[in-house]
Amino acid sequence: MIHFKNIRFYYPKGKTILDDISLDFVPGNIYGVFGKNGEGKSTLMKIVAGLLFPKSGKYHVMGEAMSRNTVKYLQHMFIVPEDFELPGIKISSYEHINSPFYPEFSREQFYELLKEFKLSPDEKISTLSFGQKKKVLIAFGVATNTKLLLMDEPTNGLDIPSKSQFRKIMASVVDQGKCVVISTHQIRDLHSLINHIVILDQSKVAFDQPLSTISECLWFGKTRRDSNESIIYSEASFGGKTILSRQDKDETEVDLELLFNAVLNEPVRISNAIKNTHHDSAV
Ligand SMILES: Nc1ncnc2c1ncn2[C@@H]1O[C@H](COP(=O)(O)OP(=O)(O)OP(=O)(O)O)[C@@H](O)[C@H]1O
């Protein structure tokens, strides 16, 4: 669906933000894009959304080479940006004005999602809190039923019950034809939702793996008595150490936060552990 090859981007007179980025976003997946502050996650999302253009490299969206004139695919994608402004009109009017642009938009689904988020279509957007406005945008984005849904920090501003509602809603909308890309720092909010992890570091793609490969190749848990040699990365935690080691037997739940820190601190060892386990299971 999205194919990036050797993408480079910098803002005018600025340093390179994204350097030699090659990535594929494939339908049927929910991607989590992670990185420290200022690593270029929002910039990457804006490039995918056609709001910014790479300085060099190849960029294909839905089978077409992207250019400033490629507007056709815009009705097949929706972005929930990190910061946004909505007009001070009623939610129902917002829907009425914007929905005709999206051929697969479902008003019924939009109203159902508003209900789940405890919002009424008669409410004026200007009277809503930031979190409530975000829910309007998330509900609208999901109801567009676009093939590509981009979300930048979608759970920022959502209260605790809304975060789990968000996960439930997102898990129910992804099918084989749809691709969701979520950029966030709230790793725990996305737990059990995303199935592919991308980590940006120092302007590059530091990690790009499906969750299934991560579980197959890496072990997450508390300190084990057996061989310390297999430990790749560890962190002090209550009552001992949380460790990430090379997988040798049982699959464990992926600890995204530990993985993120491990990728930033031990990129070569993580990459080797994945390569070697894959190689071992292939022979
Ligand atoms: N419009 C702009 N003009 C110039 N520089 C910009 C602009 N927008 C962002 N930047 C710079 O580009 C870099 C990447 O910003 P970006 O917002 O993509 O990072 P991010 O990973 O999303 O950060 P955060 O996690 O803090 O939201 C930062 O150094 C930022 O200062």
Describe this structure in words.
The chain starts with a strand and ends with a helix. It is globular, with a radius of gyration of 20 Å. It has helices at residues 41-48, 91-98, 107-116, 130-143, 160-173, 211-217, 256-265, 267-282, and strands at residues 2-10, 16-25, 29-35, 56-61, 64-65, 77-80, 148-152, 179-183, 196-201, 204-210, 218-222, 231-237, 240-246. The longest helix has 16 residues, at 267-282. The chain has eight helices and 13 strands. Helix 5 (160-173) links the parallel strand 7 (148-152) and strand 8. It folds into two domains: 2-202, Rossmann fold; 210-282, no CATH class. Helices cover 31% and strands 28% of the residues. The chain is α/β, with parallel strands linked by helices and 283 residues long. The strands form three sheets. The chain has a six-stranded mixed beta sheet with strand order 6-7-8-3-9-10, with helices on both faces. A four-stranded antiparallel beta sheet has the order 2-1-4-5, with helices on one face. Strands 11-13-12 form a three-stranded antiparallel beta sheet. Residues 11, 14, 17, 35, 37-43 line the site of adenosine-5'-triphosphate.
